[in-house]
Amino acid sequence: MSGLLEVTGLTAGYGGVRVLHGIDIAVGENEIVAVLGANGAGKTTLLRALSGTVRSSGEVAFAGRSLAGTSAARIARGGLGHVPQGRGTFTDLTVEENVRLGVISRPASTRGQADGDVERIYETFPVLREMRRRPAGALSGGQQQMLALSRALLARPRLLLIDEPSLGLAPLTSADMFSVLARLRDEWSLSVLLAEQNARASLKVADRGVVLARGRVVASAPAAELAADEGLRAAYLGES
Ligand code: ATP
């Protein structure tokens, strides 16, 4: 497996407080990796450190190049997209204006294909086409999550970091969200690093899972293996 993202000894924190204590993690081409862990384990901080929105040290190589000292904007333009928790929707802009904001982070060579990509997005999420002239604030929670994903896709990422896509969604909607991720991986040739508290659902679409506890990796294994490990789930994921 070729490592699209290779992370070694990543540390990060807020002010003087260290939250991540030497994380090793890798994501291959076309792979979905779920980062699991209880509240406060450090999942969000890991995604922020990778997208350059929280300071970190350690080695991060993306598509064979080191990201050390690279600004968040450059990281995004280089193909590493981040869909943060809370989704960052501009509620006064229309749905389509929100989607098109993703163009800003797009490689210049692909700007001409943006209209075609918006069309592909509407094929995947027909409800966004129906709502395209409405203010984004009119969307439901699940639809806003689709919008946040769509905006990130318009930047043409090779790897998407997605923070808790199922947060606040009803169980059925959240199952849809995970199957959409699997579909996007195939149709957009994406890799996905997914931070989730919902281990059961995310391991169904993930190829591999990594469990964090107090800022350290405590398990890393194929998704099916983690899903079957009841002891691990009880110890680190708050499930029984
Ligand atoms: P959650 O599912 O609640 O988002 P998480 O696994 O994503 O949890 P993080 O949000 O990365 O965990 O938090 C890890 C630790 O860092 C926690 O102890 C949290 O209190 C702390 N932390 C997170 N954000 C900040 C911040 N902006 N300033 C200071 N400490 C923070």
UniProtKB/TrEMBL annotation:
InterPro entries: AAA+_ATPase, ABC_transporter-like_ATP-bd, ABC_transporter-like_CS, BCAA_Transport_ATP-bd_LivF, P-loop_NTPase. SMART domains: AAA. The keyword Glycoprotein does not apply. GO terms for biological process: L-amino acid transport. Gene3D superfamilies: P-loop containing nucleotide triphosphate hydrolases. This is Amino acid/amide ABC transporter ATP-binding protein 2, HAAT family. Keywords: Amino-acid transport, ATP-binding, Nucleotide-binding, Transport. It comes from Blastococcus haudaquaticus.
